[in-house]
Amino acid sequence: MLKIAFPNKGRLAEDARDLFEDAGLPIRFGSERALVARLGTESEAIFVRAQDIPEFVADGAADLGVTGWDLVNEAERDLSARIDLGFGRCRLVVAVRDDSDVSAVEQIAPGARVATAFPRVTQRFFEAAGRPVELVPVSGAAEITPHLGIADLVVDLVSTGSTLKVNGLREIATVLESSARLVCRRDDRPADDPTRAGDDRAIAIDRLVVRLESVVRARMHRYMMANVPRDALARVKAVLPGLDGPTVVDVLDGGRHVAVHAVVATAEVDRVITDLKALGATGILVTRIERLMP
pLDDT-based confidence at 289, cuts 50/70/90? Predict the structure, then answer.
């Protein structure tokens, strides 16, 4: 039985539960306040603070964990990511006051005070940049510190950047790109590694990874179908490439049309619809995919 650590609250927790549900691994609690739950039929979920998950996985209390890559980097434990889960995207950035003359890391004065909830990641970043700074660790609300004279600049998480703007700050550099990841100990090699042959735990982890990957990949794609004029088929193939090219099926209309089916990246759907209509396509259908394996 695998033990998987989940965030116990917040948007990350909700998105993680939705993903596992879509992968056929619903979380079932014995009681409302339980910190342990059944995960599917063969695994167990434990619920802890997102920032503690790297420690739980590294220490062996959990086989796997779902948490932000920013928190994994801050923990400095020997972990690796098996999957980017596709949610919780954000960036850790360096930001200064709007009225500051600083527009690049190279312009930051030696000894400048930096407020952040990520002191380890921040220290490594400025050391690599050759800029000695004084860290001001905070647990939250770092964006207010430059206005109170506590710090000269901040290193903070942003998703849209609107919070920085509201608080009179602007970003000048990105420290780290982050998203939710499924993490494991670095020595947890896949089951096909010769050293893990017959390792039931490694096999179980690989199976879970495949299930989750199929859902993550499906969320990034849509299944499209359309009836197109047969004489436009050559051009349709350029518009609707699919994973390995579109599937083409005859339509019972005397041969004037063919039905094309293809998997398309979600971000490309609107463009593909427009291009298909320009070629005379009709009956265009777009639908979600539950699972998708390459």
Answer: very high
